[in-house]
Design brief:
337 residues, seven-stranded mixed sheet, 25% strand
Length: 337
């Protein structure tokens, strides 16, 4: 099979053997695969990293490993494959292996392009809201009045999915976004604050003036340029709270935050770790919701060239040339296939 090796200095289309699924895994023949920002960051910052990258795939089940009962050959699926676990799990290839527990069925109306925009970002949002923040999930009884939650970056992929999940859970959603404010509103956010033209102090004031009651829970989908500090200051003034973030902060930095604020990093890799049962349950729900039109995938932009176009997609992500969209690639568009 063809696969794209991604390293700090290059993106090279090479021949690889078709991998075999182990026990509890499935092999997917990819139709469309998608990108996430970490796809360029990991090769950039991990020394000597050179592997098939990517973890969002959509296609058909080619074979199943021992013990897999929820999928069969030919099923239309999408999946969140294992990160940093070897070439067999990489998305930028004709075939990818995934744990069965982080794959989900797709209905006939769901496009492969939409499906490839979902897995990693959706599960990041779900783990952040319901595991790290401990908020009630959509199948639990919501609080009355609704618990307010702040979602910073409410129009990016993780944020957009977090807004929808939070509303399904009956929460009062306060979003922060820029040009994507209309998107966050359309997805159900109760209030959306436009960060453009505002200092961090002004944003803190705006958050404090929202109408849903004192905010004590926050999901930071940006995690840079002062977002977590601002969140912590607001929660501290409200008597303390819980915040979760997606990028890496040093222990020294975290120690400077108010003691009344509990922080944790949302780790989507726990979907095939300690949160595996949670992930399997909510991935299954996702397939149903999307098919029924009850959950909206992020807008997709198809990059030309299939796997040969991944280099351009990663360049755009690195340079910030992305606006409330997910980059996806059709495998059949790869030259020579």
């Amino acid at each position: 099979m063809k696969g794209l090796k991604v390293s700090k200095t290059g993106r090279e289309l090479l021949d690889y053997p078709i991998p075999n699924p182990a026990s509890g895994e499935i092999l997917i023949k990819n139709i469309v695969v998608g990108s996430n920002p970490k796809d360029w960051k990991i090769p950039m910052y991990l020394p000597n990293y050179a592997h098939i990258e990517g973890n969002d795939v959509a296609g058909h089940v080619e074979s199943v490993g021992e013990g897999v009962e929820t999928f069969k050959v030919g099923d239309k699926v999408a999946a969140f494959t294992k990160m940093r676990s070897g070439d067999k799990y990489g998305a930028y290839a004709e075939y990818s292996v995934s744990p069965a527990g982080t794959a989900f069925h797709l209905g006939p109306k769901t496009s492969f392009e939409d499906a490839a925009a979902l897995p990693l970002a959706y599960m990041t949002a779900a783990i952040g809201l319901f595991r790290c923040l401990g908020l009630p999930a959509p199948d639990e009884k919501p609080s009355s009045p609704p618990t307010p939650v702040l979602i910073w970056g409410a129009s990016g992929a993780v944020g957009a999915y977090a807004v929808q999940l939070a509303k399904k859970a009956g929460l009062y959603v306060v979003g922060i976004a820029g040009s994507g404010c209309p998107l966050a509103t359309s997805l159900g956010a109760d209030e959306v604050i436009d960060y453009r033209g505002k200092s961090l102090d002004e944003l803190a004031t705006a958050i404090s003036q929202t109408r849903g009651g004192p905010i004590r829970h926050a999901l930071d989908c940006v995690s840079e340029n002062g977002t977590l500090e601002t969140i912590a200051s607001v929660l501290d003034k409200n008597g303390g709270g819980t915040a979760t973030y997606v990028l890496l902060y040093s222990d020294e930095f975290l120690a400077t935050l108010p003691k009344s604020v509990k922080t944790s990093r949302t780790m989507v890799a726990e979907a095939y770790g300690k949160d595996s049962e949670f992930a399997t349950k909510w991935f299954a729900k996702l397939g149903e919701w999307v098919e029924k039109g009850e959950f909206k995938p992020q807008k997709t932009t198809v990059i030309e060239g299939g796997l040969s176009g991944v280099a351009e997609g990663l360049r755009r992500l690195k340079e910030g040339e992305v606006k409330s969209e997910k980059f996806v690639y059709r495998i059949k568009d790869t030259p020579g296939l």
